[in-house]
Amino acid sequence: MPLPKPREDEEKNEFVSRCMSELKEEYPDKAQRAAVCYAQWRRKDDVKSWYEIRNATAEEAEILIYDEIGDFGVTAQDFVKELAGLRVKTITLRVNSPGGDVFDGISIYNALKRHPASVHAVVDGLAASSASFITQAGDTVLMAAGSTMMIHEPHGMTMGDAEDHAKMAETLDKMGDTIASFYAGRAGGDEPLWRSRMRVESWYRAQEAVDIGLADGLVGGAENRVGIFNLAKFKNVPDWVPQAIAPPIEEPKPEPPTEPSPIVEALREGVREVVRDPGESARKAASALSALREGVEEVVKN
After folding, report:
1. d(CA 97, CA 108)
2. Residues 34-89: pLDDT tens digits?
3. Any catalytic annotation for residue 165?
4. What is the pTM of this model?
5. Distance in angstroms (rounded) separating the CA atoms of residues 119 and 62
6. Is 270 found in the same domain as 129?
7. CATH at residue 64
C-alpha cells in the first residue's frame, strides 16, 4: 500500500498516530513503523533536513549528517526515532557538520552506540563541536582527504539570576567531562587531558586527528563532500579551514534633504505672518474670504 501523507490540517502528532495505525500490518515492528512515519512527516513540503538516511537495504544503510545539527526545525528526536527503525547490519555515518546543540549531540551519540549495527564513521569535510564527538560513536572512524575535526568546551545560554547561571555552569562542566570521556574512550588519556584540549578549541587536520587518536585512519577524497559553513561563533578557526564569511552589515544611509514644495513654503510663511501680526493676518483673511464669495456669486449669476 502507498505510504500515508500528511494532510494540510494535521499536526505532527496527529499524522504520526494515524500513520502508525495505517501501517500496522505492513510494518509490524513498532520502532520501524515509527521511523517510516517520522520520515514521511519530514518529507512534508520537501522540508530540508540536516541529515539523510539513504540506500537502506536489509544489510546496510548510509546516514549523512551534512549540516548544523538541529537546524530547519528537525530535531535529534526525529533522527533517533528514524535510526531506531533501521534493521541493518552495517551503518556508514558520513559527517560534514559544524556541530549544533550539545544535548542533541549526546542523544545522537548514545543512539548510535545503542544500535546493534556496526557503525563506521567517515568525516567527509568538517566534524566540529558536537559533530566531532558524534563520530566517536563509530566502531571505526576515518578521515577523508582534506577533512578537519575540532573539539571545544560545551557552550550554553542562561536567562535568570546568579543561581541560575551557577547551575548552568555546573551543568556545562559535567557535560564537558562526559564529552571528554567520549574522546578518551577512543584515543586514550584521561578526562582532564581532553578537557585541557577542549578549552583551547583544538583543530586537527585529517592526519593530526589520526595521530592524536580521534580517528583510526585516512580514506580517499569524499564523493559526497558538500557545504562550507559560517564558523564565526568559534574562537580560533585556523586559516586553512575554509568557511563562509557573513556579509558585512551596511549602516543605513541618511536620505538626502528634499527641497520644500512651494505649497508647504507658503503655508509656513502664512503661519509666520500670523505669529508676527495676528490682527493684520485676520484682516487679510477676511478680505480674501469676501473676494472669494463675490467671485462665487458672479459665477452663479452668469
Report:
1. 14
2. 877 887 777 666 556 899 988 778 789 999 999 999 876 678 888 998 999 898 99
3. no
4. 0.67
5. 10
6. no
7. 3.90.226.10
129 vs 100: CA distance, rounded Å: 7
Cell match 580517528: residue? Answer: 215
Per-residue CA distances from 186 to 95, 121, 180, 254 (Å): 18, 13, 10, 58
Q: Which of 87, 158, 97 is nearest to 125 (CA)?
A: 97
- Looking at residue 270, its amino acid is G
Residue bearing the bigger pLDDT, 289 or 90: 90
Q: Which of 49, 129, 147, 202 is catalytic?
A: 129
Whether 199 is in a domain gets the answer yes
The answer to whether residues 154 and 277 belong to one domain is no
Identify the domain containing residue 289 by its residue range.
262-301
Task: Identify the H or E element spanning 22.
Answer: helix 12-22
Catalytic residue among 107, 120, 152, 202: 152
Which residues make Cβ contacts (< 8 Å) with residue 260, sequence separation at least 6? 268
One domain, residues 209 and 290: no
Look at the block and give the residue holding cell 477676511: 286
Displacement of CA 225 from its chain's centroid (Å): 19
Q: Can 129 be counted among the known catalytic residues?
A: yes
Q: Which is more confident, 92 or 54?
A: 92
